[in-house]
Amino acid sequence: MAPGSTILLLILLFLSIPAAPALGDPGPLEDVVIDRYYIPKICLREVQMGDFIRYHYNGTFKDGKKFDSSYDRGATVAGVVGVGRLITGMDRGLQGMCVNERRHLIVPPHLGYGSIGVAGLIPPDATLYFDVVMLDIWNKNDKLQITTLSKPEHCNRTVENSDFVRYHYNGTLLDGTPFDSSYSKDSTYDTYVGTGWLIKGMDQGLLGMCAGEKRSIIIPPFLAYGEKGYGTVIPPQASLVFSVLLVDFHNPKDGVFLEHLEVPESCKRTAVTGDFVRYHYNGTLMDGTLFDSSYSRNHTYNTYIGKGYIIPGMDQGLQGVCVGERRRVVVPPHLAYGENGAGNKIPGSAVLIFDVHIIDFHNPADPVEIETVYRPEGCNVTTRDRDFVRYHYNCSLLDGTKLFSSHDYEKPQEVTLGTNKVIEGLNSGLLNMCAGERRVLIIPPHLGHGESGARGVPGSAVLRFEVELISMEEGVPEGYLFIWHGDPPANLYEQMDLNKDGEIPADEFSTFIKTQVAEGKGRLMPSSDPEKVIADMFQNQDRNQDGKITSEELKLKSDEDQEKIHEEL
């Protein structure tokens, strides 16, 4: 309470004491008698001369007979204090009141309706008793009162005119009477700011807010609904109090906003339209509400970018990412799910925030990427298809997740190149290598395990191989198990029939082939099990499977191929 108001009330009370030992029998009064029988704990403002006020009252005579009541009319009284529009006693008795304060006032006749009274209502020289509750106080010089209740630590942007805002609010009159709440509707209030869609006070009160900020906004009537009020819930000349939580906002001209949270030091390539990207994400609203997460499904989100498979904002927001990058993508609703939202988790006109971690990406036209880490000097002999190679490898995803390693086993990996025994990209990466050479291979999924993946390998994953070629053996053409280094013997069957008994059993056949290999006259298909290769050769020649080869059965592979050509012709 202002010091002047306190002194005034003390003087009024002091003047009333000698003439009025009790409220019930005041006797002749010189001034208004004021009984402040309820004073609110918080009083932000007191009535002063020239203020506009709204109040309820009951008016009675000394005997308790009622002569007037605003309650009976179902409408508060609104007026200006101290300008002669009220009886003098009320002008004096209302000064210094707080909102929600209650007073008993005793107004002597000369400060009321005097010796004339009011015909048919108030007799001459009547002392008037008023029970008053103050509901609202404002002044034509008032401005919007804004109090920030809470504000996020980080605020990159604040509301400006023409922005579209989504906010929750509780609306009350100055005395605390609620008149509306977005919470009761379980939906935010969504509108443009500064375009006349809101009352002037809210248009002004929302400016400069951050997403997640809470404000109390007190709006005088001339910036609210003025003399007319609004329906049955907002009386004329009512000050309004809004408790506002700004959920999110955007401007129709907004594009995608990017925040680079973590960018790898080495980024040889960035994603472009047409690339296939695998990434993890958390999707939240601007107030932090989580609406979706790939982590919760323990599976990356996999898609092409720039082709319309995802919302336009993400199509744009993933352009230029590096493998391993962490990026925040803020997408306005016109580049997301628009006014309709999506499902029951994304409201209409919602701004979406995606915190993205790029696992890998590739293009369907990508070849195997080969980086030679070490190549021995004097490297003259390199691997070709059909060669038998031994190599060590470490296989991982591009995010460093280890998948497989030959070092976990007792010996290197062995394979004949070009026989579809390893994925196509690894086969390509092992070609033209020298023994002792080391390479890093980046293998796109269409040359790896494809969309389906494999045991331990996610679908559409780009693979990283560190390979070291341990040894290599020259191979034989496709379909051959053994080749001659020169022309085969003219009398091959006789030479192969070591004991000259007219038939060649398995042991005799094996001895002959091994001798040819030892003397450098021919070579077997490289294998970790030469005995099996020889056994396969014998089985191919033993056409009736009787355990021995006859002269009619023995044929060179080249002769067989020639016979097939003739048959086809």
TrEMBL record:
Pfam families (alphabetical): EF-hand_5, FKBP_C
Reactions this protein catalyses: [protein]-peptidylproline (omega=180) = [protein]-peptidylproline (omega=0)
UniProt-annotated location(s): Endoplasmic reticulum
SUPFAM superfamilies: EF-hand, FKBP-like
EF-hand domain sequence ranges: 491-519, 529-564
Enzyme Commission identifier(s): 5.2.1.8
A GO CC term assigned to this protein in UniProt: endoplasmic reticulum
PPIase FKBP-type domain segment(s): 50-138, 162-250, 274-362, 386-473
UniProt xrefs under InterPro entries: EF-hand-dom_pair, EF_Hand_1_Ca_BS, EF_hand_dom, FKBP-like_isomerase, PPIase_dom_sf, PPIase_FKBP_dom
Record field: compositional bias (Basic and acidic residues): 543-569
Region annotation Disordered: where it falls in the sequence: 538-569
Gene Ontology molecular function: calcium ion binding; peptidyl-prolyl cis-trans isomerase activity
Signal peptide: 1-24
Function of the protein: PPIases accelerate the folding of proteins during protein synthesis.
Protein name: peptidylprolyl isomerase
Gene for this chain: Fkbp10
